[in-house]
Specification:
Alkaline Phosphatase, subunit A; globular; alpha/beta; 15% strand; eight-stranded mixed sheet; 478 residues
Length: 478
């Protein structure tokens, strides 16, 4: 017969392990097991106006997606295939090799009721074209992968500035305290150019840095001890650590770095309970697995990341960033199609097309798309001419910072439309040009944030995501 547990024994049990400490914290929340919200740390906390979205999934393609092979239909390229670019001005491109114009390797068609142009490179995304808001007039300030990726994420070409996900964590806080506000799911094949700098908190408080999850295998390293620790040893260790931390904080006037580290240990305790549940994709139905491509060798890796992203949003994570494309070098395992566009882009699109379409459909069916914003971006685009010597028609394309496409989907947007234009061959943005500062201002606006009011004082400056620039793209909003 089980004996009732007394108060002393219960407290002893509760302090015996990090998981038990987390469980006790959960049980003490007014008798409920729901996670508590974590408030904003901003000096002028949002919402500054009624928000349309409360969560974000950012799909980040590394290497440079070709706009003229995906979302920017240019019939003139068909007519001019194999001809020189023309004009008096020689384009300044990364490798300096301006070959002949090349038509798209994938046929474009008008899709859905909206008639949005999408190429056969993304046949599955074409099936949800009526959900997409395509911006065809993006431009960047560099055609070098690393600073361009920094600017895509932070608005600045230099490293050390907070990324979009960190600003969102800082500004909105979290809907849960047992998972991070900002989660990053890197490509299983490697990290993007610049590595973990792409999810840095920069000068924001340290707890706003992105936390990386793996979509398969061990989700987070060192979350659980490698071997069992005797309860009395763990209790004594934690008591000593708490006392030392208290002394250390007092001597250093509540150091942000140390305080953030203490909070990270507290979060880790709660994550020991939350992470195994949220990352267990086996609880999903076979139909859901098929929707995300988990039954297909080509799509299973990215599909698991997309499904995990949806589950993280359901558990209260604010911002999930999925990277599609890994390290540079040889061979390139990203979208950097210098040599052979059909082989490069065909391989990369084959990994992500079905899972992303499945994610959009799944979010829509669950009612989550009405409160979620999806971003699909690349650091720049690619040239309409081939990367080859003058007079030659090659099979690859060089970097193009002057005009490229991104798309958004979800809450607060006009769907099934495109905004802005590039020139007749898709080289330069010429109508309604959109800088990263403008896109970031628009994303924050949809989240109820005035990009000019979300600031952090650093080195004598009230810093913000959009620097001193940025205009909300009102024409894409409902």
């Amino acid at each position: 017969m089980n004996q009732p547990i007394d108060r002393r024994n219960f407290l002893s049990f509760a302090s015996a392990g990090i998981g038990s400490v987390a469980l006790t914290s959960l049980l003490m929340r007014d008798g409920t097991l729901q996670a508590a919200a974590v408030p904003s740390e901003a000096n002028d906390p949002p919402p500054h106006h009624p928000p349309r979205a409360s969560k974000v999934i950012h799909i980040t393609l590394t290497g440079g997606l070709s706009q003229v092979d995906s979302f920017d239909h240019k019939p003139d390229l068909e007519k001019l295939h194999g001809k020189p670019l023309g004009g008096d001005e020689r384009p300044d491109v990364f490798f300096g090799k301006v070959g002949l114009l090349r038509k798209s390797d994938w046929a474009f068609k008008q899709r859905g009721e909206s008639g949005l142009w999408v190429s056969d490179l993304f046949k599955n995304l074409a099936g949800v074209a009526d959900e997409l808001t395509v911006i065809k007039s993006m431009y960047a300030e560099t055609s070098n992968h690393t600073p361009a990726t920094f600017q895509e994420n932070t608005g600045f070409r230099l490293n050390g500035f907070p990324v979009l996900g960190s600003w969102m964590s800082y500004g909105l806080g979290s809907e849960t305290d047992d998972l991070p506000a900002y989660v990053v799911i890197p490509d299983t094949r490697g990290l993007p150019a610049g590595g973990s700098i792409n999810w840095t908190n920069g000068f924001l408080p340290a707890q706003h840095q992105g936390v990386t999850f793996r979509s398969q295998g061990v989700a987070i390293d060192d979350l659980f001890p490698a071997r069992a620790i005797p309860p009395n040893t763990e209790t004594a260790t934690r008591d000593l650590l708490a006392a030392l931390n208290k002394q250390h904080l007092a001597r250093r006037d509540s150091s942000d770095v140390l305080a953030a580290r203490i909070r990270s240990y507290e979060l880790a305790a709660k994550m020991q309970l939350a992470v195994p549940e949220v990352t267990n994709l086996d609880t999903e139905t076979k139909a859901t697995h098929a929707m995300y491509g988990l039954d297909n060798e080509e799509t299973v890796e990215f599909g698991r990341g997309c499904l995990l992203a949806r589950r993280l949003l359901e558990r209260g994570v604010r911002f999930v960033q999925l990277f599609a494309g890994g390290a540079f070098g040889s061979p390139r395992i990203n979208w950097d199609g210098h040599e052979d566009m059909r082989r490069n882009h065909g391989r990369e699109a084959g990994r992500i097309d079905l899972p992303i379409a499945g994610l959009i459909r799944d979010l829509r069916s669950r009612g989550l798309l009405d409160e979620t914003l999806l971003l699909f971006t690349s650091e720049f685009g690619r040239t309409p001419f081939t990367q080859s010597n003058a007079g030659q028609l090659g099979t690859g394309r060089d970097h193009n910072q002057y005009g490229f496409s991104v798309w958004l989907a979800g809450a607060g947007l006009r769907h099934g439309m495109s905004y802005g234009e590039t020139d007749s061959v898709g080289m330069k943005a010429i109508e309604n040009r959109v800088h990263w500062n403008d896109l970031h201002a628009t994303v924050l606006h949809l989240l109820g944030i005035d990009h000019q009011r979300l600031t952090f004082y650093h080195n004598g400056i009230q810093r913000r995501l959009t620097n001193v620039h940025g205009d909300v793209i009102k024409d894409v909003l409902t």
